[in-house]
Every structure is written in C-alpha cells, then in structure tokens.
Amino acid sequence: MQHQKLKQLGGVLLLSAAMSLSAQAQEKKANVVVIGTGGTIAGAGASSVNTAAYQSAVVPVDKIIAAVPEVSKIANVRGEQIFQIGSESFNDERLLKLGKRVSELLKQNDVDGIVITHGTDTIEETAYFLNLTLKSDKPVVVVGSMRPGTALGADGALNLYDAVLVAASKDAAGKGTLVVMNDEIHSGRDVTKTNSFKVETFRSPYGPLGYVVEGKLMFYRLPARPHTTQTEFDIDKINSLPRVDVVYNYGNVSRAAYDAFVTAGAKAIIHDGTGNGSVAEQIVPVLQEVRSKGVQVVRATRTGSGVVIRNGEQPDDKFDWVVTDDQNAQKARILTALALTKTNDSKELQKILWKY
C-alpha cells in the first residue's frame, strides 16, 4: 500500500514538473499579436483554381491563424481584427488608426512583435508609413498573399508562418517595419509590388534584406535610411494628415487633374512624371501656377525606380519645386504628407525627401 502511494506521489510530482517545464517553455516563446486588416490573405474563391478571381477580406484573422497551427510552436500568438477590407480601400484615417493601435501594442511588456495581415495592393504604402512613424525597435512585419487560401498553390499560410517567425526573432529588432512575402524579407521603405498576379511580385530595387529559409532567418544587409525611432515623425502625435494627391503623366496629359486637386484642397501634388520626372511643355506653366497658390509641387518618376535629379531637365530652384530622390509616387505621397506635418517650407521639405 505504501509503495503504491509513493508511486502515485511520484507520478504527481513528475506531472507537476512536466507542467512546470511546459509553462516555462511557453513563457520563453515570444508573444506576437497578429492584426487582421483583410486583403487576399483573408480571401476566398469559388473554386480551388481561382487564383486571381475571388472575394477578398472575408476570412477573420483568428481563422487565418488557426489554419497555420505550426505558428504556435514558434510564438504565443493571438489575433486582433481591426479592419476587414481590400487594401485598395486604405485611406489616411485607416492608416492612422492602424498605426496608433500598433503603437499601443508595442508599448506593452507582454508583446514582443507584431504581424499585420494586409492586402497586397497598398502593402508598400502602409509598411512605409509605419516604418516612418512607429517609435519602437520591436519587430513589426506586414504580410499578405497573392492567392486566397482556397486556391491551389495558396501562398498565405507559409507567408504568415514566415512573418510570425520574423516578428518573434530578436534578429529582426531594430530593422524598421518589414514586409515578408515569398520567402523574402524586405524593408518597408524599399519594397514595391511589381506584378498584378504572380507570387514573386514584391521587389526592392536594392534587393531584399534577407530570406526565410526552412524556418531560419538569414539577413544579408541593413536599412541605410533612418526609420522608426530615428525619425522626427511620431504616430502618437499625428491625428490627421494633410491632403497630398498624385497626378500620373502620359503623352497628351492635360491640366484637368491638377486643377481638380488644387480645388479639392491639396497641400501638395506629386507630379508622377515620365522619365526623370519630366514635365510636358503644356504642364510647366500649370505647375508654376499650382506652386503660386501655395501648393507644394513634388516631381517623381513613373518608371518605378531611379533617382529624380534636382535641377536636371527642370529648373527646380527657379520654380521652387521639390524632387523625390528614389521614391515612387505612392511612397512620396506618404512621406510628403508626414513632412507637411512638420513644415511647409519647400527647402526643408526637400531635405526631408532626401533624408528618408
């Protein structure tokens, strides 16, 4: 009888020790919050062969997480739904709401990293905005997919697994907001969508920061421009963004869009020009007129990459215009809007666009 009691006691002690070790292992895992905003990664198609025709933003974030149980082995993960939209519907108000919520979570001691599930259409704009405004070194990863989870060859599950892996890693700390897609880790500053349907659509002109290979992070370079804690922009202090609009240029472009945006109250217009931010002869006086009304003129290039040269083909000093450095028009819009919360001086604005 005594032997049996001792055996039972030993079993209890072993079970207690095992539970204690399990709890310790759980505590050692990073705590990652996955914020759902919608997009293709939350989409569903009518058939498994629908990879481009589907309804986005219909699957809640908790179901997306539950479909990838492997993430529980690398982090303590919980979901939070903030939006359920296609990312083409992101606007400044939603950007600010998302940024402020991410900032709140990053301040919590029980949060080690953030993953944001996001539609791919404007993922680069959201990532760049967060890269410029969050005041934390903790990893923040934006992730999406090019195919809905119902499709053959769906990429969302692995993308999410990789994103959680990055967000849970101390190696990802201090590198700014990251975009993880297709086994690659990109800087939120550089990355852009380059194809309408292929899974390898996201590219950075200078290459990715690194890769995720068989569950391992492999970094090869660091962001060169200031980000997060190094910038003058603080999401907690920004409650609205000045209106900044983009005008795409082409042969036979007219002044109609410029006039409409000025009338609508734009504080700056991104001139998305051909070549090196070129300005057609009929548009030069239009942009001069725009600037004379106090609206900032920022020259960008529609080519997708390359530096717009100040005082190159156009006398920017003479006309008091600004150039974008190497940023595409959509990212120049984000940076210009943030810059205008600090200054309306064109010379200071130019310094900011060159800096970030």
- DSSP strand content: 15-25%
Which stretches are low in confidence, meaning pLDDT under 50 for 5 or more residues running?
A: 17-23
Proportion of helical residues: 25-40%
Which structural category fits the helices and strands? alpha/beta
CATH superfamily of the largest domain: L-asparaginase, N-terminal domain
Order of strands, widest sheet? 2-1-3-4-5-6-9-10
Largest sheet: 8 strands, mixed
Total helical segments: 10
Span of the ends, CA to CA: 76 Å
CATH topology of the largest domain: Rossmann fold
Mean pLDDT: 93
Number of domains: 2
Question: Radius of gyration in whole Å, from Cα?
Answer: 24 Å
Order of helices and strands: HEHEHEHEHEEEEEEEHEHEHEHH
Molecular shape: globular
CATH architecture of the largest domain: 3-Layer(aba) Sandwich
User: What's the number of extended β-strand segments?
Assistant: 14
Annotate the secondary structure layout.
Elements: H1 2-28, E1 30-38, H2 61-66, E2 75-85, H3 92-106, E3 113-117, H4 123-133, E4 140-143, H5 156-167, E5 177-181, E6 184-187, E7 192-193, E8 202-203, E9 210-213, E10 216-219, E11 244-248, H6 256-264, E12 268-273, H7 284-292, E13 296-301, H8 316-319, E14 322-323, H9 329-339, H10 346-355
Parallel strand pairs: 1-2, 1-3, 3-4, 4-5, 11-12, 12-13, 13-14
Antiparallel strand pairs: 5-6, 6-9, 7-8, 9-10
Helix pairs in contact: 4-9
Q: What features would you describe in this structure?
A:
By secondary structure, this protein is an alpha/beta fold. It folds into two domains: 29-230, 3-Layer(aba) Sandwich (Rossmann fold); 243-355, Rossmann fold, CATH 3.40.50. It contains ten helices and 14 strands. It has helices at 2-28, 61-66, 92-106, 123-133, 156-167, 256-264, 284-292, 316-319, 329-339, 346-355, and strands spanning 30-38, 75-85, 113-117, 140-143, 177-181, 184-187, 192-193, 202-203, 210-213, 216-219, 244-248, 268-273, 296-301, 322-323. Helix 8 (316-319) links the parallel strand 13 and strand 14. 45% of the residues are buried.
